[in-house]
Amino acid sequence: MSATFTEPRPSGALLLLGEGSDLRSERGVECTGALPPASDPDLVERARVARAALGDRAFVLGHHYQRDEVIALADVTGDSFKLAREAAARPDAEYVIFCGVHFMAESADILTHDGQAVVLPDLQAGCSMADMADIAQVEEAWEVLADAGVADRTVPVTYMNSTAAIKAFTGRHGGTVCTSSNARVALQWAVDRTGGVDGDGKVLFMPDQHLGRNTAVLQLGMGLEDCVVYDPRRPAGGLTERELRDARMILWRGHCSVHGRFSAENVAQVRERVPGIHVLVHPECKHEVVAAADQVGSTEHIIRALDAAEPGSAWAIGTELNLVRRLAASHPELAVHYLDSTVCFCSTMNRIDLPHLVWTMEELAAGRVVNRITVDADDAHWARVALDQMLALPAPAPTTAG
What we know:
alpha/beta
């Protein structure tokens, strides 16, 4: 069987650069600036020459959501934490070129040694989710928890998709970092520190409310009533002291602008359109989407699931479009569908394009370090504490849900 991937249609409400808003989704953040022009064919040759000139002095990392032209130049591809670990495992590389977004480059800087320069080809490649949790807001939230008398029974857990300052806050307060792969293990560790699932301790989970809720309810056995959402834009987070005392999961009001796009209606529509299809989504999707799916997992899990899929089977994937396109191209024996019918790129991730990458490599080859990402020494220390706590957790088991 050779399946043809159906490109989702562009939507006037879901502009490709992430500009404007779509009231049906959870976008919530605008994307400033504009993407550079499409790559000139001459850039491919310039990229090859610059990469050869750098040789082993440079190590290029490419996140799964990057464009194909960038992935083609990467030494290693993976999710955010895999790439940070790969960077730390290359101590001889003078330059670590991180083709991802800002928080990922920060994590790489924390985990690499001082003699290495971590470089982000475009400094505007941020993350709307990470930006939803500002350190001043988080510190204010902790004061709200202290005033409610629950801070001493609360363990902070921050998703990898957060700033170094938030990771440092988590380290200072005895918490840990998690990824979408090990969220269950990390939350179980945090809950066990305050009496277990049946205890009265709490977890402050930042910044993605959906990953926290999905993990707590579908994997730890909590109820939706155990979860409250802290909104940093409202006084006291929009919660009463009673609500904070009764809650087990205090979820930061943040989300991924890509995964927040998918809906339960998308799942129902693709099942009607393609009988017998397997629906596989990322755990950053909303709870009703995850509950309606056949499988749930990180980007690495999604890739492994399709690698192991039975030839001829049909799959609807709920994650970033660049990755879904690549999976469809590498698995012609499968019928791979994008879960939504409209285009949904990660607009900030797509800022890392060939023009920026070529410029970066040419500058480095000429001895000029550009766009270096450095983390404050104190923040780096405490963020490393939180990251090391994550590394000390047991390896996660395969993630599925339905």
